[in-house]
Amino acid sequence: MLKNLSVWNFALIEHAELEFGEGLNILTGETGAGKSILIDALSAVLGQRIGTNLIRTGCENLRVEAVFLLEENSNARKIISELGIDIDEENIVIISRRIARNARNNTILINNSHVTLNALKRLSAALVDVHGQNENLAILREENIYSLIDSADKNIFGVLQDYQKIYSSWRSQVKNLEDKKRAMADSEQRLDMLHWQEQEISQADLKPAEDEEVENELRKLSHAEKISEHVEESCQLLDGDSKFNILTALAKVEKNLADVAKYDEKLNPARKLLEDAAISLREAYSDIHSYADTLDFSPATLDALQSRMDTIWQLKRKYGDSVEKILAHLQKVRAEISAIENFDSDIENLQKLITTLETQAKSRAVNLLELRKISAEKISKTVQKEIRRLGMSKAKFIVTVEPSENLTANGGDTADILFSANVGEDLKSLSKVVSGGELSRIALAIKTVSAGRADSAATMVFDEIDTGLGGTTAKVVAECIAKIAKFKQVLCITHLAQIACMADTHLQISKSDDGNRTVTQIKTLDAESRVFEIARMASGAENDESIKNSRAMLADAKKFKLKQSM
Question: What DSSP designation does 266 have?
């Protein structure tokens, strides 16, 4: 619900604050006072395109701010959550929009978070429903006709959800089948290539980390002569033929210390260390000698290793920079080969699944169609009754739902509105026969009937609803708007006293000038002030007779609203 609208430097308005209440909020005033400017200001904060020509003369920018109170579980709350914007505990949403002469200074804020114009439009559609000539055309769109039908019967929602779930799965599998068939057309050539890759990698018989092992062997063989020399020299130094080798010398030292121990035991610790060292050196000699026995530096071995490394390098260049990646690619190739070779069975299984899903979807679509026909008939009668009350006494209004050959996201049917304004005229699609004035009253009738829908916007705006109306029709329009105001907050600009007297909150718009500037002013009328304003609107004068008539109109309006609340 719209709580407050603040406007700065907008056309004739220097600064204005409007407080709105629940129910019907009426804006009245002399022609040219600025009533339409306020609707333009509200449209601006709802995301309509606004030119810099509306910036008040002498100012660099205009600003409009609207404060909304959100309802629990409303579509607007869901959209704000999707936009990542926080809402306080009071459920208040503040939308602020600034239009500057320099477009770089334009801003749109929702609860102090910057948003795009598209995001604002998306949110505003869930906050406010504007009833104007352009907006009335929306009822001609099929998705809105479906919304009208489906919202009239709570049972339709569950059936529609079930259908759409199956329909979505069916369409997904159809696309999957199309993708597989396209892939199958190219599969023969692809299969040849995959088999060649599989054979090339498999024949290499790679082992994990084999590339590192081969590189190490190659490095060793590339330095074979030096390795052999160092190993041979090390063996000689440790225990060679020379009498000066380390182990022989160490044995002599051990013998000398053993002789010393006969006379003095102080060197026994040193002797023990030498014994341990001798054991370690003999183990080292054994390892070095064993290593020397394994050395094979034949050119054939080097050639074989180099050839193996070339094979691995070629595979790395094609399939990955490590043996692990090459082997992973091999598994992927084998899986794709299996998938291609199983195309026929996969396609057959998919076709069976698609047939099953299509049968299920058609069955749900039939159920949906039957429910919609019942709902459409009910809606047709209710809306037609309202249309006839609105001055088109011979009009016929029929919402049709007919089976279709094709399934869509909406079901297995098509929806339309047929209309005839006069006796003897054939029923034709509303989009082809209705005039602007007729469409406005039809839209009002539809909104009157569907005002209680929980998924619709909490605020409704009627702009120029009274154009061309008078007499009995004007009274009926007023009653329709009052009915809607039972369920929704309504904002309405009007020149008709019949509509104005239904107000729950009555705002009067006027303008004045000080000789230099023209200023639009707004005030909320109390009960007595309303009497004089209704008198002015009804007769153009404030005299005893017009005031008496005004009080009578207000009393009748009060009785009507009281009756509606029972």
Answer: G
